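Bumping with the actual sequence this time:
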Amino acid sequence: MSEVISLNPYEGGPDWKRMGRAIRYLSENYLSQPSLDDAAATVGLSPFHFQRLFTRYVGVSPKSFVGHLTLDHAKQELAGGASVLSAALDSGLSGSSRLHDLCLKIEAMTPGDYSRGGRDLAIDYGFHECPFGIALVMATEKGVCGLAFGDEGEEPAMMEDMRSRWPNATYRENRARTERIAKQIFEQTGGDVPLHLLGTPWQIKVWEALLAIPSGKMTTYRTVAEKIGNVKASRAVGTAVGRNPISWLIPCHRVLGSDGALHGYHWGLVRKRSMLALEAARVQESPKTSAIA
């Protein structure tokens, strides 16, 4: 079966591109409490225009976003210990952020399919602007199987990373399809978002546990291990979390070290910090904020 591989430049919108740069700037400089003027200047906009555009595209104000960019927030959320994930699993997915207004339908790959490295599997892909830089969206006929992040110029490395997970699949550039998916995910255009999980049975078990962590909440590798029935498997859980191919939708960014600090994230700690801050700000401003603590 022949492959069609193309890394031609995507046609990202200028507003998403500006907001992605703004999020990265704020995430890298939040300790100095950058002003609205400073942030606006980094993307070439007036403070008034920047405030309106950021709030429209990101869903929260720049001030609210900066207010949640702190590791103390993550540590405070973990003060309740193991009860955080336990409460999440008992109550199901939170409806407290726009992300979870999406309906995620999950179908897992069979162990036999996984062992064949994706042979006879066709995967559509496309690169798109998003709040966290460049998103590589990948989907089989059954649903989203990959969501990766990077910066301009890193597209070939992102593609190589994702292709290495399913080396025998056929890859087809299909921006028309993946753009619709990207808009569902990042612009909340509505509709179901089916997920096609391509992993080992153990990995899928861990990823399903991640889906139960509410937006704006965090937990530890140990707690995830406890909830899936193997308290001694923290390291194996960490490995499975690191192999999560559908970042953001399957929220591996919500898992922290036992000390409550941010540790390694496949797509970069600045991006992880941005994701946590954005979710926390959205939860705080949402009228549907969850009562889970």
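The tokens above came from a reply further down the thread. The longest strand covers residues 122-130.
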